[in-house]
Amino acid sequence: MNQGCRIHLNTPPGVAAVNGYIVYYIDISLQGGHAAATVLGVAHPWAFESGLIGVGQDEINSGLDGTVQGTTDPVQEFLNIALGKIPGTYSYVYLLPGIVTHQGTSPVTGDASRDITLALAPNLLHGPIVTKPIG
Fold first, then answer.
1. Measured between alpha carbons, how far is 39 from 70 in angstroms, rounded to an integer?
2. Is 46 in contact with 60 (CB distance < 8 Å)?
3. How far apart are CA 104 and CA 32, in angstroms?
4. Starting at the edge strand that comes first in sequence, how are the strands of the sheet with 92-97 ordered?
5. Fewer CB within 10 Å, N- or C-terminus of the chain?
């Protein structure tokens, strides 16, 4: 799973502005029946605004590298806290497109290309499926 944060960088005069994302690559799994997540890495893909070509690519990469350095630990800590609040033990973990806000048959909302819901299911589906929007 990857989940990104859109950013816009203003650049010096004469250099095209930049649009990009900070993307965290996250593995969500079950450990001892509980949801767990591991931050595998972070990236910062970007492009000059409106497809323009510009100078300063090394400086932009360096600036973005500096911005994302040290951010994986706080993201990991947040995930540990958020997933640790989900009660119960489960046998299956799924990532579903869209946002599901209630257990059962609640309607799916959001953008399936950007929003995801974590669904946890007990063994043989003998209990309720717990969903948690994460996107």
1. 12
2. yes
3. 24
4. 92-97, 116-121, 130-133
5. N
Cα separation, 22 vs 78, whole angstroms: 16
Number of domains in the chain: 2
78 plus 134 within the same structural domain: no
Compute the distance between CA of residue 107 and CA of residue 96 in angstroms, rounded to an integer.
12
Q: Parallel, antiparallel, or unpaired for β 116-121 and 130-133?
A: antiparallel
User: What's the domain range around 6?
Assistant: 1-85
6, 61: one domain:
yes
Distance CA 26, CA 133 (A): 15
What is the pLDDT at residue 2?
45
Give the global pTM: 0.69
> 95 and 73 in one domain?
no
Instruction: Name the amino acid, one letter, at 93.
Output: V
Q: pLDDT digit string (tens) for 14-68? A: 777 888 888 888 999 999 999 999 999 888 888 877 666 667 788 888 888 888 8
